[in-house]
Amino acid sequence: MFNLIPTLKAAAVAAALALAPAALDTGARAAEGGPGSGHDVIRIPDTKFTFDGIFGTFDRASVQRGFQVYKEVCSACHSLRQLSYRHLTGIGLTPSQVAAISSQFQVQDGPNDNGEMFERPARPSDRFRRPFANDAAARAANNGALPPDLSVMVKAREGGADYMHALLVGYEEPPPGVTVMEGMHYNKYFPGHQIAMAPPLNTDGQVTYADGTTATVDQMATDIASFLAWAAEPELEQRRAMGVRMIVFLTILGGLVYAVKRKIWSNLHGE
């Protein structure tokens, strides 16, 4: 019986790790760096995504719309190099739909029999095509700024998807007395409030959703944040489900171990 203790400890640690990120899904978080002084605190709104919390799941329709926003808007500057096109089956697309999407892009391959590199239509097994050939080309096209890869951006930024949504809707005119440097834009949720990226979502209807959803700026920001949250952690739902199953298993096992312990010690006491 006592040999079960290390097993129980290991299982408990595994369950805690499986559910830990969900426990950190808080609502509003702070973005620091106020106008001028850099000390003001602006609360990041809680968008209340469907995947928040231990039992949260991705809204597949929203994630698919987010992919459309990425494809039509964000992919012009930002890469998504940790994903392959085949991963899009995880958001509810069929293999034929994924094949059709991947074939729209040209990727470099080779060398061929002549030792030359060539371009071909992308396959589902290929990684998402980069918008620029290299970082130098990306900087040259963006006034020296390097657009970051978005594969794990939601995990890399404090506030996660809430921050990504807030950033996209946080562009506005600077308050009186605040001077924005040349080539920069004022964003009330960005640390320091001056960001090189121009507002990517700047007007309602910028994207025509395939499912007929009205594409307001807030809706597009919500959808792209949902897609990037999925891209950063596509196994989120499976991991959480495993954690819940382990908690249930540990609860039942703990009860059985306690019952056995009571039985053994009651016999010893009777002797």
From TrEMBL:
Alphabetized SUPFAM superfamilies for the sequence: Cytochrome c, Cytochrome c1 subunit of cytochrome bc1 complex (Ubiquinol-cytochrome c reductase), transmembrane anchor
Domain Cytochrome c intervals: 61-232
PROSITE patterns named in the record: CYTC (PS51007)
Annotated signal peptide: 1-30
Keyword terms: Electron transport, Heme, Iron, Membrane, Metal-binding, Respiratory chain, Signal, Transmembrane, Transmembrane helix, Transport
Subcellular location: Membrane
TM segment ranges: 242-260
InterPro entries noted in UniProt: Cyt_c-like_dom, Cyt_c-like_dom_sf, Cyt_c1, Cyt_c1_TM_anchor_C
Pfam name, any one: Cytochrom_C1
Main subcellular location of this protein, as a coarse class: membrane
Family (UniProt): Belongs to the cytochrome c family.
UniProt protein name: Cytochrome c1
